[in-house]
Design brief:
It is a single chain. By secondary structure, the chain is an alpha+beta fold. It has helices spanning 15-27, 43-48, 68-78, 89-114, 124-140, 155-170, 172-177, 181-191, 194-199, and strands at 7-10, 31-35, 56-58, 64-65, 214-215. A 5-stranded mixed beta sheet has the order 4-3-1-2-5. A hairpin with a 5-residue loop joins β3 (56-58) and β4 (64-65). It is globular.
Length: 226
């Protein structure tokens, strides 16, 4: 049954779901959270979105948003206290292109580095090298303040950090040994933030037909700069 809060179908470790939760949390938009198991998706998720990937957000009016970036934009358009959305059209296009490149080029190599057995003929180390080259280029883009587009965090940082985190965790010792101080600092700053920690809370798997727990971000004292 649909209540007054949006329903978020989520999977804690999914980088797409992570970024959706980041935007929902910073916007202050509370949701009913339904933690799913990807191998046993609940009927409610399948009927909301035939595509059945997570995250999926079902609004109280029945509208379904089933792309993580669209969920981010929806939440930030309601409330964007840290000004993650680019203010200018030209920058918006650059941010869009950057996120797209991360999801295609970087993620292609990340998946084959992390799960070589799922891809016939994939050489994990070759893909690690290719992903690392992408990251080196990304690091060159970091501003003196340590963010991808300008002096503060933006949609680009938040939409891509969950994928870089996944890359770092694949072999954390190797990642820490690389000479990428600015990139490592960028990732650490994001994943150790109160916001990120809050969206990684462990919720029990949702039982079909029940009401899930309320998900909402931490309350930050103004001014909010992250
Ligand atoms: N383009 C989608 C991709 C979401 C996606 O691929 N999520 C993965 C989990 S990380 C998923 O649900 N895969 C479907 C499955 O494993 O059955 C988005 O941005 O929301």
């Amino acid at each position: 049954m649909q209540g007054t809060l949006p329903i978020l179908y989520s999977f804690r470790r999914c980088p797409y779901a992570m970024r959706a939760r980041l935007a929902l949390a910073i916007s202050g938009q509370a949701c009913e959270l339904r933690e799913v198991v990807l191998k046993a998706k609940p009927a409610e998720l399948l009927s909301a979105s035939a595509k059945a990937s997570v995250p999926v957000l079902v609004l109280p009016n029945g509208k379904v948003i089933d792309q993580s970036l669209d969920i981010m934009r929806w939440a930030l358009q309601l409330n964007d206290p840290a000004q993650w959305l680019p203010a200018e059209l030209e920058q918006a296009a650059q941010v869009e292109a950057f996120i797209d490149d991360c999801e295609t080029t970087f993620k292609h190599h990340l998946d084959r580095y992390k799960y070589p057995n799922r891809y016939a003929g994939a050489d994990a180390l070759q893909h690690r090298t290719a992903a690392a080259a992408w990251l080196k280029q990304m690091a060159q883009q970091l501003s003196p303040e340590g963010w991808l587009f300008g002096p503060a965090a933006s949609l680009a940082d938040m939409a891509t950090a969950p994928f870089v985190r996944q890359f770092a965790q694949t072999d954390s010792l190797w990642f820490e040994q690389q000479d990428w101080p600015a990139l490592q600092a960028w990732l650490n700053r994001i994943v150790s933030s109160a916001l990120f920690v809050s969206v990684m809370h462990n919720y029990p798997v949702w039982d079909s037909g029940t009401i899930g727990p309320i998900f909402s971000g931490p309350v930050f004292p103004p001014p909010l700069t992250f």
